[in-house]
Amino acid sequence: MKIRIRGLRIGDYDDIIALWKRGGMAYEPRGRESRAAISRQLKLNPGLYLGAFDGRRLVGVVLGTIDGRRGWLNRACIDPAHRRKGIARMLIVEMERRFLKKGIRLFAALVEEENKPSLALCESMSYVRRDDIVYMRKEVG
């Protein structure tokens, strides 16, 4: 297995959705994960939407965003057949490198409590758990 990481393009959209489905991730095809929305996001976050490829097959993804002071790791997913092979770590290391290149030195990720493998990975990579913050959101439309 030779994994190659590269920036994602809108031409990868169908493969991203297929990966999220294989990985059991929910997505919003008529909302923030529609083709049009992802196309806009790719332009807003150039070089920060990363894919891991085994040959031509997309086997991992992480979407990076910057809020002005923090680099966010979003929507990470690894193909179930390729898990526990270091692909998520490779994607995170590359994303951190890209954040640093843009002057961002604080990295963050929201991880669901029941996602023990992702929590363990983040902790193994020196991400510090914060239990004193309550995540709140508002969606309009």
Put the structure in a nutshell.
The protein is an alpha+beta fold. It is 31% helix and 23% strand. The protein has a five-stranded mixed sheet with strand order 1-2-3-4-5.
Task: Provide an overview of this structure.
The protein has 141 residues and is α+β, with helices and mostly antiparallel strands. The radius of gyration is 15 Å and the shape is globular. The relative contact order is 0.15. 31% of the residues lie in helices and 23% in strands. The protein has helices at 13-22, 35-44, 87-101, 116-124, and strands at 3-7, 49-54, 57-66, 71-78, 107-109. The chain has a five-stranded mixed β-sheet. The longest helix is centred in the middle third of the chain and has 15 residues, at 87-101.
Radius of gyration: 15 Å
Compute the number of strand runs: 5
Classify the secondary structure makeup into a structural class: alpha+beta
What is the molecular shape? globular
- Low-pLDDT stretches: none
Beta-strand content bin: 15-25%
Mean pLDDT value = 95
Helix content: 25-40%
Side-by-side strand order of the widest sheet: 1-2-3-4-5
Largest sheet: 5 strands, mixed
- What count of helical segments does DSSP give? 4
The separation of the N and C termini measures: 43 Å
Topology as a string of helices (H) and strands (E): EHHEEEHEH
